[in-house]
Amino acid sequence: MTYLFDSNQIIVPNMNHYIIKVSGKVQGVFFRASTKDKASELSINGFVRNEADGSVYIEAEGDKTMLDKFVAWCHHGPEHASVTRCIVTTGEFKDFKDFMIQR
Questions:
Q1: Strands 82-90 and 15-25, how do they pair?
Q2: Is 50 a catalytic residue?
Q3: H or E element: which one contains 50?
Q4: Which label site among 7, 19, 83, 88 has the fewest CB atoms less than 10 Å from its CB?
Q5: Which residue out of 14, 16, 50, 103 is catalytically annotated?
Q6: SS3 at position 61
């Protein structure tokens, strides 16, 4: 992979960084574990964590096509989840090496 450096920011062609906030019944339904599994399946790096407000916060990096598939999955999540809102914004590429569940 080729890395370009511009003003202290890493730029990796064809790689994107998404910040995703998922709300609804998304805690206590294996959302984080399922998110990690889906990220691994799609070769996405980053992390997922529960937030105090009951939502799930995700930072995800990878190929745009795979990220878009990941976001589509986040709109419904695992079987027992009930997603009411999924907000996606772009962020600065951080070059995560794997996908982790943060506690």
A1: antiparallel
A2: yes
A3: strand 45-50
A4: 7
A5: 50
A6: strand
d(CA 84, CA 42): 23
State the residue for tokens 């370009």: 4
Q: How many CB atoms lie within 10 A of CB 98?
A: 11
Give the domains, in start order, of the chain with CATH numbers.
Answer: 15-95 (3.30.70.100)
Cα within 13 Å of Cα(58), Cβ side: 32
Q: For 11-33, how does the pLDDT look when each residue is reduced to its tens digit (9 = 90+)? A: 556 789 999 999 999 999 999 99
Angstrom distance (rounded) from CA 87 to CA 103: 21
pTM: 0.87
Residue from 14, 16, 32, 45 carrying the catalytic annotation:
32
Strand partners, 88: 20
User: Closest Cα partner for 100 from 41, 10, 39, 27?
Assistant: 39
Is position 32 annotated as part of the catalytic site? Answer: yes
